[in-house]
Amino acid sequence: MAHTGVRSHAVGGTTGLLDGLNTRWHKAALYSFMFVVIAHWAEHIAQAVQIYVLGWPAPQSRGVLGIPFPWLISSEVLHYGFALVMLVGLFALRKGFTGRSRTWWGVALGLQFWHHIEHLLLIVQSSTGANLLGRPVPTSVIQLIVPRVELHLFYNFVVFVPMVVAMVMHLRPTPAEREQMRCTCAVPTAA
Question: Where exactly are the transmembrane stretches of this chain (predicted)?
């Protein structure tokens, strides 16, 4: 008999949203989350292309959506909001992972937590007008040594890579990991 990889997730006949996100809706939630992450990543890559390939000045290099909506690129609230969405998404979908994939997803979560702290620092400075070390603009800790555009490319890269590793391992689990899975994300194995 073939193993479906889906275990019962009802507790007393009811399930919560987080349980559903990590069992019967895990695949859809994970793919939706990854679509948002890749779209955000594409915005940062577009901005880098505008600066390094097209030679645009950094203030005019606003990605794709920042061209028609310039306030998007300068909104610390929006940037913090996305960092928070990433953190919540990584946390909320973590229970659906098992074994090696859970470890890699946890690495992405830890790195995103720091990225979120950096954005929190930026939004506090933006809201209070008291910038780090008297800088003329809100500045994150690592931004003291790495320019903002490059720093955000780096942050997105170091969070995205372990997410991709986790996804690959989650879709192709070992037999022991497959046995522990409570979702239907795993690619079927040959019988």
Answer: 28-49, 69-92, 153-171
